[in-house]
Amino acid sequence: MIAERARQSGETVVVRLAARGDGVTADGRYLPGAVPGDRIVGEDVMPGPHRAAPVCEHFGRCGGCQLQHGDEEVLANFVKGRVVGALQSAGVEAEMVADPHLSPPRSRRRAAMRAEMRDGTLALGFNEESSRAVVDLQECHVLTPDLFTLAQELRPILSALMPKRWICGVTLTEATGGADILISNLSPSREVVHAFAEWEPTIPVARVSVEDGGRTDIVLQRGKPVQTFGGVDVAMPPATFLQATADGEAALVAAALDFTSGAGRVADLFCGLGTFALPLSAEAEVLAADAAGPAVAALEAAARRAKRRVRTLHRDLFRRPMTAKELAGYGAVVLDPPRAGAKAQVEALAASKVPVVAYVSCNPSTFARDAATLVRGGYALTEVRPIGQFRWSTHVELAARFVR
């Protein structure tokens, strides 16, 4: 209706957001910075009812957020639209797509940032949009307050340790027992070890590791970073994957539990530390498989201590997917692959007789590709739950149920 009125008046209107956040008009133009409901009059963009005032001074430069200029309706429609659009492109239709779940501001407990020394001054933050330049964050509305404070505490020590014109990766993770910090492109020299040993003892950090040349070394250990899944504490190895927000993780776990309810045996593939395996093990017997050896070992130790019915398997599921024969007898499979999806594993699943597949994805495009394979193999996509865990970002996640 809005688009029709605008057309009759010689205007055009923005009707949706493209995958990278650009506004798309009714006549097919792409306009960076526009949101649905904005009117285009000549070369001017007239703000519409869904435009919001960005909350962060860095918005427009920082690549951490692309959608702060849209209201809650814009965010929800974008998250849902990314999932539905990807499925439509793959020729797959879901029986039901739920309303999106959006994580709140200041909820990211894990962040991969960059530190850059330029002209003797440290910049610490996220990359600029479509650039390798680092935005020096003076505020952040996606990180938890504690994580942002920790980043500021790192500034003096990184400034002292990093050579001129040097760039490091800095991954910060909140954990029980203190934060976990991983700094890449920094060697475990005597100077580095001494600097962290002298770090202010009141800073709530459990461990600092450095990664150089593919090797990870611990340079400070004050405690053991721990994450809890399904009521079970798991000790975190350095550089272990973790869902970005506790809120988003809870939504994904709830979906996996709902989708696999009643399955006596569940295979959790790409299991990581046990995000899904441990909650599932409260009611089911679980096989947990992943190529990340330290994570699998940590999960195994935690499950043994808690007397949970979890059997672990250290296995590269890209090169050696679980076969249909190996999956015989399982009532459900949970998949949580990286952004590349799980092409080989899904092909094996499509040839299996597993009744239910719960697929957790961080990439709607590769999910849609894999969904098409499962549907061709005889599965029906009965439900999809879109999840905007990375608030104000074009990064979209989801959980889906396939039933044979």
Automatic annotation (TrEMBL):
Q: Name one GO molecular function term.
A: rRNA (uridine-C5-)-methyltransferase activity
List the Gene3D superfamilies: 2.40.50.1070, Vaccinia Virus protein VP39
Q: Name one GO biological process term.
A: rRNA base methylation
Q: Does Methyltransferase count among this protein's keywords?
A: yes
Q: What UniProt keywords are attached to this protein's entry?
A: Methyltransferase, S-adenosyl-L-methionine, Transferase
| InterPro entries (alphabetical) | MeTrfase_TrmA_AS, SAM-dependent_MTases_sf, U5_MeTrfase_fam
The UniProt record gives the binding positions of S-adenosyl-L-methionine as 243, 270, 290, 336
List the active-site residues: 362, 362 (nucleophile)
- Which family does the record assign? Belongs to the class I-like SAM-binding methyltransferase superfamily. RNA M5U methyltransferase family.
Q: What is this protein called?
A: 23S rRNA (Uracil-5-)-methyltransferase RumA
* Native source species: Pacificimonas flava
